[in-house]
């Protein structure tokens, strides 16, 4: 039993290392294909870090909730769960106060933070969606960020209407997707 536990623990830890290595390589590639300028990408990352830091300092909200922030062009998408509507409003207020935030899309759900098994399922679902978008020949899947929260898939990015339509249709047809939420900013044509 002890050996099995050690093997499983090692696999989880090794998987995390590989994920970091892959994510590090993918980040550089994603920056190169992103329609935002490098300066805007860095600004959005700074906004996300500041927002999460400020949320982390907001007690007891942070301790009783599971919150995430994803930013594109100064527009912050708030995700996760909090026990009540007061926490939902408080989180939005905190994020609105971060320098550089132009708008907040509050998609925080009222309820207890999702379990580790739900988080794992969400990670798998994000991978399935991203892989599907990347495999589609009529779409540049690198232009779309995918985030899954409790089987709700959020599609984020600067896209054409045609790209958005294709991405939404593909995502809706993936098993396990409960809902598709778009946080797109539309551009006239693909470069």
Automatic annotation (TrEMBL):
Alphabetized PROSITE patterns for the sequence: BON, PROKAR_LIPOPROTEIN
Keyword Iron-sulfur included in the entry's annotation: no
NCBIfam families: PRK11023.1
The keyword Amino-acid biosynthesis appears for this protein: no
Domain BON: 43-112, 121-191
One Pfam family per UniProt: BON
Protein name (Swiss-Prot/TrEMBL): Osmotically-inducible protein OsmY
């Amino acid at each position: 039993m002890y050996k099995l536990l050690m093997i499983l623990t090692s696999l989880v830890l090794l998987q995390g290392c590989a994920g970091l290595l892959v994510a590090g390589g993918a980040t550089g590639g994603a920056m190169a294909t992103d329609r935002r300028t490098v300066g805007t990408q860095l600004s959005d990352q700074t906004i996300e870090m500041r927002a999460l830091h400020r949320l982390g300092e907001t007690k007891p909200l942070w301790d009783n909730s599971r919150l995430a922030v994803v930013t594109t062009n100064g527009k912050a998408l708030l995700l996760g769960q909090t026990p009540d509507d007061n926490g939902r409003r408080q989180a939005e207020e905190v994020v609105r106060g971060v320098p550089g935030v132009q708008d907040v899309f509050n998609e925080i759900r009222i309820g207890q933070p999702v379990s580790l098994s739900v988080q794992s399922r969400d990670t798998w679902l994000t991978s399935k969606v991203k892989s599907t978008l990347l495999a589609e020949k009529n779409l540049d899947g690198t232009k779309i960020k995918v985030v899954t929260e409790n089987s709700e898939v959020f599609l984020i990015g600067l896209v054409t209407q045609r790209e958005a339509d294709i991405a939404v249709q593909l995502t809706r047809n993936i098993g396990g997707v409960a809902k598709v939420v778009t946080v797109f900013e539309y551009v006239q044509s693909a470069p």
